[in-house]
Amino acid sequence: MSKTLPVQKNDYIDVEFEDLTHDGAGVAKVDGYPIFVQGGLPGEKANIKVIKVNKGYGVGRMVQLLERSYFRIDIAQEEKHKFGGCQLEHISYEGQMKFKENQVRQVLTRIGKLENVTVHPVLGMEHTWQYRNKAQVPVGEKDGKLISGFFKPRSHEIVDTKESLIQLPEVNQAIQAVKEICSELGVKAYNEETHKGDLRHIMARYGKQTGELMVVIITRTNDFPNRNSIVEEIVARLPKVKSIVHNVNSKRTNVIIGDKTKVLWGSEVIYDYIGDVKFAISALSFYQVNPDQTKVLYDKALEYAGLNGNETVIDAYCGIGTISLFLAQKAKKVYGVEIVKEAIEDATRNAELNEISNAEFAVGKAEDIIPKWYDEGITADVLVVDPPRKGCDEALLQTIVEMKPAKIVYVSCNPGTLARDLRILEDGGYETLEVQPVDMFPQTTHVECVAKLVLKK
Ligand SMILES: C[S@@+](CC[C@H](N)C(=O)[O-])C[C@H]1O[C@@H](n2cnc3c(N)ncnc32)[C@H](O)[C@@H]1O
C-alpha cells in the first residue's frame, strides 16, 4: 500500500510547513500528501524522519530545523512538555493568538459553512503563565513514594510534576503538599490495572480574589489510612485552605469524580469574585479556570446580549449561575438551567449572596427543561448557551428555533461543535453576526469563543 505513497517509513526528507493542526502539530505536504510533525511551524523548513505512513497522512519527527519562524521561541530541551498540555509553548504569544484566530475561521468555514461571519482578533491576556485556578492530577507510585502530574502523551504513565507553569503557585503548592502528606502517612496510590490502592486524584481550586483554597481528595475506598492526621497536616501546611473534601470513586473508569462527596474539614464551598459578583463554588461545580479572562468573556457575553432591563433571559448550561447573575443585573428576569445539582445549589446561594432576586434556577438537562418551560409559556428574548465541549443537544437547538428568541449568545470552548450548532441555528432562521475568540488557555491549543446571533427578519 505504502508503495504508491510519495514517502516511505524511515525516509529522511526536507519539508516546508504550511499550517498547524488543531492540536498544534506542523503540517507539511509532499505531492499533496500531508505529514504531521510535532513542533513544526508554518513557514519553517526542516529535515524530518517519516515515522508512520497511513493511507491519508503520515507522521514525522523533527530531525533538524533548517529555517525558523518569526513566531518560534526557544525553550530549553529539559523544559519541553514539562508542563503537560502546553502544545503551543514553543510559539510566541502573538503567534499563538494568530493560530487561534485562524483555527476559529477555518472551522467556521469548513464545518459551519459560515464564510462571511466576522471573526475578531483573539482577546488575549497580559500574563500568559500562572493563570489556572484549578488542577486535577492523577496519582501513582514510584520507588515507594507517591507521584502526581500528567500522563505522558498516548500513555497512562504519570510524569511526576512539581510545578506547572500555567497553574497559580497556590494550586501547585496545594497539590505538592497533599501528595507529600499522603505519601508520608502511608496512603497507597490507586492502581488502575489491579483496581487496588486508595488515592486516585488530587484536586485543588483557588479563589484568586479571595485567597481561599479548596482541596479534594479522590479515593477508590470510603476510607483511607490516617485520614484525620492527613487533614490536620493539610490545615497546618496550607494556611489558605478553607475546605477539604473527600470524593469516593469506586468504579473502574477514566471518569475522575465519583458519586459520594463529603466535607472532611471546613466549609463545603470556597468563594471568589468575578468583577463585583461573589460566587460560592463547591467541589463538583464547574467554574472557569482562568479568572482574569472570565471577566473578559462574560463582559463580551453581556455586550452581545445587549440588554435594556426589559428582557427575559434563559441561561442554558448555567453552572453556578455565573453568566446568569452577570445578566440578571441588566435584565427583567433570568432563568438558568444546569445538570449538576450541587452547581444549582451554588447558583441559588449566589443569587442570595449578591441580593439578586430576579434569577431562578432549575436542575436538569437543558434539552429537557427548556422545552418544558416553553410548553408552560416561558420564552426568552435573549437565550445564552454555554455547553460543554460536545456542544448543544439537538433537541435543545430545535426548541430554540421554535421559541425564536430575538438574540442568541453562544459561549463555546470548542470551535468545532460551535460551528456545527451555528449551522443548525442558521438553517433555523438565525444569522451569526460576529464571533469573538477569547484566550482562556494560553500555551495550549484551546480557545473559547462568544458568538452573537440574531433572528432574521
Ligand atoms: C462550560 S460549563 C459552563 C458553565 C457556566 N456557564 C460558567 O461559565 O461557569 C458547561 C456546564 O454545562 C453543564 N451541563 C452539561 N451537560 C448539560 C446538560 N445536558 N444540560 C444542562 N447542563 C449541562 C455542566 O455541568 C457545566 O456546568
Automatic annotation (TrEMBL):
Q: Which InterPro entries match?
A: MeTrfase_TrmA_AS, MeTrfase_TrmA_CS, NA-bd_OB-fold, SAM-dependent_MTases_sf, TRAM_dom, U5_MeTrfase_fam
Alphabetical UniProt keywords: 4Fe-4S, Iron, Iron-sulfur, Metal-binding, Methyltransferase, S-adenosyl-L-methionine, Transferase
> What PANTHER family does the database record attribute to this sequence?
RNA M5U METHYLTRANSFERASE, TRNA (URACIL(54)-C(5))-METHYLTRANSFERASE
Q: Where is the active site?
A: 413, 413 (nucleophile)
Q: Where is the TRAM domain?
A: 6-64
Among the GO molecular function terms of this UniProt record, one is: rRNA (uridine-C5-)-methyltransferase activity
Similarity remark: Belongs to the class I-like SAM-binding methyltransferase superfamily. RNA M5U methyltransferase family.
Q: Which GO terms describe its biological process?
A: rRNA base methylation
Report which superkingdom the organism of origin falls in: Bacteria
Positions of S-adenosyl-L-methionine binding: 288, 317, 338, 386
Instruction: Note the SUPFAM superfamilies from the entry.
Output: Nucleic acid-binding proteins, S-adenosyl-L-methionine-dependent methyltransferases
What is the recorded name of this protein? 23S rRNA m(5)U-1939 methyltransferase
Keyword 4Fe-4S tagged: yes
Q: Name one Pfam family in it.
A: tRNA_U5-meth_tr
**Keyword Phosphoprotein recorded:** no
